[in-house]
Amino acid sequence: MVHYESLFFYEIKNNSWYLLVKMGHNPAIMIFAKLLALLLSVTSVYSIGFFFTAFLTFFLKYNLIVAYFPSLYITGLIDLIIISMISMALSLFGKTITNARYSIFMSVAVLHILKVISGHYSVLSNRVSMQSLVNLVDLNRTLYVPIAFAVISICSYIWYE
């Protein structure tokens, strides 16, 4: 939240892009460039942290199931992307840092409830089923991933409009 301007579409409300638009830059391209930069930043920080944690866990002599790592990684990445997308979409309607904090907190709470209702936690906690990436999108086990992609699509549509 320290870098509110770089995390959200605050500059649109602040009218900071006015001169860039007047100089001929396409606002849609600027929005998607900002979104792509945010997603690349979130993905790189998450990836470094995930692999560093896995590396450190190796030294603690835990029983590591390496086949479980891709599913955990993808699940965490989906969560981060959906939280980022929701936050960016809600930032178009909120005006203050306090509203941004509440929107992030509420989106995380709603995602947690959605995971419980959809049965995603039961899939995540089963080490045998998580060794296959297909079980993440198996509609008989959980509906979380298709719902997450639908929410990401809705957020993208909000920016487009």
Notes on the protein architecture:
This protein has 161 residues and is an all-alpha fold. The chain has one domain (4-160). Helices cover 70% and strands 0% of the residues. It is built from eight helices and no strands. The protein has helices at residues 4-7, 10-13, 18-22, 27-59, 69-91, 97-118, 120-124, 144-160. Helix 5 (69-91) packs across helix 6 and helix 5 (69-91) runs parallel beside helix 8. The longest helix has 33 residues, at 27-59. It starts with a helix and ends with a helix.
N-end to C-end Cα span: 26 Å
The low-pLDDT segments are none
Mean pLDDT: 80
| Helical/strand content category | mainly alpha
Shape: elongated
Rg, Å, rounded: 18 Å
Count the E strands: 0
Strand composition percent: under 5%
The number of helical elements comes to 8
Structurally, the number of domains stands at 1
Describe the sheet with the most strands.
none
Helix content: over 70%
Order of helices and strands: HHHHHHHH
Strand-helix topology:
Elements: H1 4-7, H2 10-13, H3 18-22, H4 27-59, H5 69-91, H6 97-118, H7 120-124, H8 144-160
Helix pairs in contact: 4-5, 5-6, 5-8
List keywords for this structure.
70% helix, 161 residues, mainly alpha, elongated
Question: Briefly, what is this?
Answer:
This protein has about 160 residues and is mostly helical. Helices cover about 70% and strands about 0% of the residues. Helix 4 runs antiparallel to helix 5 and helix 5 (about 70-90) crosses helix 6.
